[in-house]
Amino acid sequence: MRQACVTLYPALLAVTVLFFLSPTLAWRPWPHNKTNAQDSIFGDSKKFEGSSEFVHLKYHMGPVLTANITVHTIWYGTWQRSQKKIIREFINSISAVDSRHPSVAGWWRIVQMYTDQTGSNISKTVRLGQEKNDRFYSHGKSLTRLSIQSVIKSAVTARTKPLPVNAKSGLYLLLTSDDVVVQDFCGQVCGFHYFTFPSIVGYTLPYAWVGNSQKFCPGVCAYPFAVPDYIPGLKPLKSPNGDVGVDGMVSVIGHEIAELATNPLVNAWYAGQDPSFPVEIADLCEGIYGTGGGGSYTGQLFNGEDGATFNMNGIRRRFLVQWVWNHMVNYCSGPNALDQ
Ligand SMILES: *[C@@H]1O[C@H](CO)[C@@H](O)[C@H](O)[C@H]1NC(C)=O
Ligand SMILES: *[C@@H]1O[C@H](CO)[C@@H](O)[C@H](O)[C@H]1NC(C)=O
Ligand SMILES: *[C@@H]1O[C@H](CO)[C@@H](O)[C@H](O)[C@H]1NC(C)=O
Fold first, then answer.
1. Domain tally, the chain
2. 31 lines ligand 3 (CB under 6 A)
3. What is the per-residue pLDDT for 56?
4. Could you give one GO CC term from the UniProt record (predicted)?
């Protein structure tokens, strides 16, 4: 992360010092700040779908999610049924057995190849758990990294239908609607994951936040279904489920779930020297969705008859999801790779 540290150091320092937090960030390739993890690790030399020699992804002996994973979703703010459906179907597709190749389940098989000290693999099963609606913005329309933990606390301690506390195999996914501002959203991150503090929430629970960028920065967080204004001539691609913000969120959700599974307490699988700034299995493949991807090129994708762009199939829908680092072969891979 050398290059990124130069520009981002002040912000990170502030976060660390003020809040004792060092969340793992989902870097985006856009806009001006081209500080995605891959660029930083590889320096200026662009390599084919990542590279092997310079990446030292290591296992740091911490736990990974080997038991059946249950994703508990908190819908913060205003969500339409159609939007929830797209995201639920993506999560349900992760362990679906009958989707067409190349499938979301095929993508997850790369994540499953990671193991813990005992040789146990990441769980094959990822399912939807109970959900919580936080329709009335319990902590306002502007959230910080810390108030995100308070939102999770409210969800697990609610008087009616609290989310179950499942520290062993539960993941808590906080999704904010397109009118919610979140600290560092758009400028630096589209999502991040970390774990909750017992002092705030009462438990140590792995969680992720992902925001709907539709209003504030679709060109950053829903790329390539929206493009930044300052790049003339670049045209957005048609999104597969007709909702640019949500179709863009799907890839970020995939990014965060893959990293939560392999690095839930930020002491398992990551690259880089600095544990407070780990480069994880999805960070390494940021912006790569197909063969040949890298830099600002997405790689080879599919075009549906309806003109929509995608790279994998779910149960009933198609999705565009970024690739993840395959530690058996030492490069980024996905189910739609042409050479595998
Ligand atoms: C885990 O999931 C599998 C299949 O999805 C199921 O057969 C098994 O019973 C589950 N195990 C537990 C402990 O829930
Ligand atoms: C479990 O992990 C090992 C080592 O990475 C890998 O060879 C194997 O294919 C994985 N098993 C499954 C079921 O993914
Ligand atoms: C680039 O990063 C710096 C430092 O994190 C930030 O202040 C600035 O707003 C970023 N620029 C853009 C266009 O996001």
1. 1
2. yes
3. 84
4. apoplast
Is 338 part of any domain? no
Quote the mean pLDDT of the chain: 86
Q: Is residue 199 part of a domain?
A: yes
Write down the pLDDT at residue 174: 98
Whole-number pLDDT of residue 236: 95
Residue 55 lies inside a defined structural domain of this protein: yes
Give 176: exposed, middle or buried? Use CB within 10 Å, 0-12, 13-18, 19+.
Answer: buried
pLDDT, residue 53, reads: 56
- Ligand 1 atom nearest the C-alpha of 95 is 5
Q: For residue 340, what pLDDT band results from cuts at 50, 70 and 90?
A: low
Q: Is 186 in the pocket of ligand 3 (CB under 6 A)?
A: no
Reported confidence tier of residue 130, pLDDT bands at 50, 70, 90:
very high
C-alpha 61 to ligand 2 mean position (Å): 17
Range of the domain at 228: 2-333
Residue 31 in this model has a pLDDT that exceeds 50: no
Instruction: State mean pLDDT over 52-72.
Output: 89
Whether this model's pTM surpasses 0.70: yes
Atom of ligand 1 nearest to the CA of 125: 5
Question: By the 8 A CB rule, do 122 and 262 touch?
Answer: yes
Question: Quick check: is 93 in a domain?
Answer: yes
